[in-house]
Amino acid sequence: MSQLANQYGAINLSQGFPNFPEDERLIKISENILKENIHQYTPMAGLPSLLEKIARQTEKEYARKVNPNTEILITAGATQGIYTAINTFISHGDEVLILDPSYDSYEPSVLVASGTPIRVSLNDDYTPNFNKIEAAISPKTKMIVVNNPHNPTGKVWKALDFENLETILEKHPDILVLSDEVYEYISFSQPHISFNTRDKLKHRTIIASSFGKSLHVTGWKVGYLIAPENLMQEMKKVHQFLVFSVNSFSQHVISQYLNIVDFSEISKMYLRKRDLFQSLLKESRFELLPCDGTYFQVVNYKSISDINDVDFATALIQKHGVAAIPISVFYNDHTDRQMLRFCFAKTDETLIAAAEKLCRI
């Protein structure tokens, strides 16, 4: 869709990255640190000062104490972390439950590991269907992937959802949880509940986080994993021969930036953008679904057209000059409920210009 948007000169609300400037303080740190002697390999697991600050942030945010030397791993983006986790613990014949609609890196990572992805659809309102999840578990199930806050739908799990999952997994003590929490600091309707806080599950959970998403520097590709030592030491073996160590410059800059950044401001900033985008589309013919977290707004276009979502998204670019992502591509069976995903991590000017075009449809 981004390629098509470029071809037609459309406003791109499809790909999930910001188009606004980074924090000036982050840029200043980058400029100051550039000429320092920081351009060689960091230790394989990550820059020690950054690992320590992640540990402090995890304790501050989630009241969980993690050992920076044995329970945290800096990765080349959360996607590499997710790939590493899956390819450490999944092998031929192992099954991995993936909740649809789902981010597109999970299944390929399972397939590379010679595992079997088992796609389980969420409910129509994008809440987890625990009856389906439990029914999908077999003796071959090795892992379940949870994404919260959820891309592409913007849904956020509630405490009851975690309790339901805990009840199911109590019966299956060998199943691991891979929790994709890259939007953990972008939650609106309620505080983000992390697996870091779930005492019944954190001993068998791998949590993926993203500085790219949290600090609006997606191109830096710096993320991290948190997991118990017994799981982490196995993932480090894969990580060492996959990337060895992550970009040293970015790690040094982020380590200093964590001294001054206020993560609570991130949700406030995106809440304002969400509210602006929703208000701009209020008079349009699109039906806006609730957006509880992330920087994605899902809309239904059933009052405009009955064509499939891929064709509608293509026409939206070609005829109306705005790019979105059709939700069906996030499903294994291409479930089409006439939904599109817009990214509102854009400047106000971009959102206003896009909304003007959308309101004319």
Give an overview of the whole structure:
With 361 residues, the chain is α/β, with parallel strands linked by helices. The chain folds into two domains: 2-22 and 263-359, Aspartate Aminotransferase, domain 1, CATH 3.90.1150.10; 37-257, Type I PLP-dependent aspartate aminotransferase-like (Major domain) (Aspartate Aminotransferase, domain 2). 39% of the residues lie in helices and 16% in strands. The chain has 13 helices and 13 strands. The protein has helices at 2-8, 24-33, 48-62, 77-89, 106-112, 130-136, 159-169, 211-214, 229-242, 248-257, 264-280, 309-320, 348-359, and strands at 11-12, 72-75, 95-100, 116-121, 141-147, 176-180, 205-210, 223-226, 287-288, 296-300, 322-323, 325-326, 339-343. The strands form three sheets. Strands 2-8-7-6-5-3-4 form a seven-stranded mixed beta sheet, with helices on both faces. A four-stranded antiparallel beta sheet has the order 9-10-13-12, with helices on one face. Helix 7 links the parallel strand 5 and strand 6 (176-180). Helix 3 crosses helix 10, helix 4 runs parallel beside helix 5 and helix 4 packs across helix 9 (229-242). The longest helix is centred in the C-terminal third of the chain and has 17 residues, at 264-280. The model has no long low-confidence stretch (mean pLDDT 96). GO terms for molecular function: kynurenine-oxoglutarate transaminase activity; pyridoxal phosphate binding. Residues 11-357 form the Aminotransferase class I/classII large domain. InterPro entries: Aminotransferase_I/II_large (IPR004839), Kynurenine-oxoglutarate_AT (IPR051326), PyrdxlP-dep_Trfase (IPR015424), PyrdxlP-dep_Trfase_major (IPR015421), PyrdxlP-dep_Trfase_small (IPR015422). Its cofactor is pyridoxal 5'-phosphate. It comes from Flavobacterium urocaniciphilum.
